[in-house]
Fold these 2 entries.
Entry 1:
Amino acid sequence: MTHPYFQGASEPRILAHRGLSSAPGQDPSLWENTAAAFAAAHAAGAEYIETDCQVTADGDVVLFHDATLERVAGDPRAIAEVRTAELAELFSEHGGLLTVGDALEAFPRSRFNIDVKSATGAEPIGPLIAPHAHRVLLTSFSDRIRTTALASVRRAGAAMSPATSGGTRVIGALRALSGIRLSSARALRDVDAVQIPERHNGVRLFTPSLVRAAHAHGVEVHVWTVNDADDMRRLIAAGADGIVTDRADLAVATLGIS
């Protein structure tokens, strides 16, 4: 049965990668994974927002990709070492800091794809997601972190489990099994999607056999990170169910989402 996360949404799926912070004409001071970036993605017509979470020194689960502030703010400190109030001040002129709970409350019509970046976030994210599980997909590169986070949501009393996409172990098994035409049923058990780059370390992950195997078990295939219009069209024509993109505005226009 299709998870509510996908029901009633436009196809193909457009997942706004960390919101929308790189469109022409946007304020160059706007940071990814901020309230303003999410608002821009929503305004552009993206129904799905892809984001990431880290845990602050106060134990708050905030939306941020990197383990440190170096790339975004030129500050070498780890997010885990910084108090939430200090982060909020730092973000105040760049789009606004969001916790997981803040984002789900502030954007009640958006569907969130949340990548849990560290083991410390797997347990505390559960109660935050539980009231919104019908419109959240939880994932992580680590399948251990992913399954821990899903269990935390269920323990928090969610009416249903969130949707989920497989981590590196699931993807590796799917790629190998599909390539030799063996059943992928076990690898894809309890998985709603796989989210992959077209290629990784010179190996093509997005293959016709992988797409066929995923679709045979009702699992969607999303490709990241795709910012070229021709690539968007090509991948969707080849069977991708969705794309993760920095240019949700371009994707909506290119793929005819309304």
Entry 2:
Amino acid sequence: MADFLFEPYAPVTIPIARGGLFAVRRIYCVGRNYVEHIREMGNDEREPPFFFAKPADAVVVGGAAIPYPPQTDDFHHEIELVVAIGKEGADIPVEQALAHVYGYAAGLDMTRRDIQAIAKKSGRPWEMAKAFDHSAPIGTIEPASEIGHPDKGAITLSVNGVVRQEGDLAEQIWNVSEAIAYLSGFVTLKPGDLIMTGTPSGVGAVVKGDVLEGAIEGVGHVRTSIV
């Protein structure tokens, strides 16, 4: 057995409802997938889907608090449906895409909005706006074998008990099947991959002390606080 220079990091895991752990491989995020959010951000509604990524160790579970990140004065919440991939595939046809889904969860795509705005203006990558430490709080994964494949239902985010974001999964421009099919044309999806499917309108800033509670009808909840 090879001698490691240092101990390999433990796998990042997310609890599965009714027991077990889902080991995270990669996190892909769909950009601009709800019309009202596209409008509030001033972007083109007719663009095809595009993707950015977060590292696996950005995941935060169990309702744990997250620190207010450095290098930003405009830290935003984005509630999203998270798709957990359970079967490998590339160039997956739309009509076969859901067979590759293990389950679903509610998640938060936390964003340094001011850094993102600078990156957009300069034509630079989004990593430092999206892919930083603790930027992906995620709730328990519900197996599709138990809840099916939700294509409608309320998706909401409250800050300190006040609703900030409110939409419906049916409002997604690119549904789960289409997102999987499109993404799998660029990369081979494998068990352990997550796809965060975009956020409805109402994104906004949070500060230290805020408590965030997200919910997706038929899927579950995600909770965190800013410290």
